[in-house]
Automatic annotation (TrEMBL):
InterPro entries: MORN. Keywords: Repeat. This is MORN repeat-containing protein 5. The keyword Nucleus does not apply. SUPFAM superfamilies: Histone H3 K4-specific methyltransferase SET7/9 N-terminal domain.
Amino acid sequence: KNCAEGKGKFVHTDGDVYCGQWHNNVAHGMGIYYHQADHQLVTCYAGQWVNDLQHGFGVETWEEGCKYEGEFKDGQKDGLGIYRWADGGSAYHGRWRGNNISGPGAYLSADKREFKGQWKGSMIHGCGIYSWPDGRVYCGQYENDRKSGFGRFTWPDNRRYDGYWLNGKQHGQGRYHHMDGSSVLALWAKGKRVEWIDEPKED
């Protein structure tokens, strides 16, 4: 029985092309795969293959300009990797799992917003620090891309909120610090203060 072995090129009936190393009739080793749709190049993968699947280090590029450089496992982005968006300035550096951003990583947007922390299913999920170019900073917990749990939000003029959040808004007990250093404790609901909390005064 004849099997593809060594180096070679294979053109699929749908127009996709693989050029590279083969072993026992499957892509295995280093190779480049071109994926097309409607006779237009859509994606290109250049890197390591194991048993016909992307496995090891590789670089995947998209026709619109996006690019991933990093680790693959069983045909999916898995491990450490860098993803750059087509806008030319946005990028993610960190962990992937099953084609999704998952684990610790850092994101920098084209407009200089930055997040460093935990991700799950390509969403911010867990603890991290989000900063804006105007000086605002949030340090705390996230759930499904939204501030949820306990966190500290600081404004450039030194105002600060330390407290609980839900779905991206202050919700629960929190302390608001004024510019002059004084602070008040209050209950919040969906981003609005609903009740002051009396605190015992020091003698």
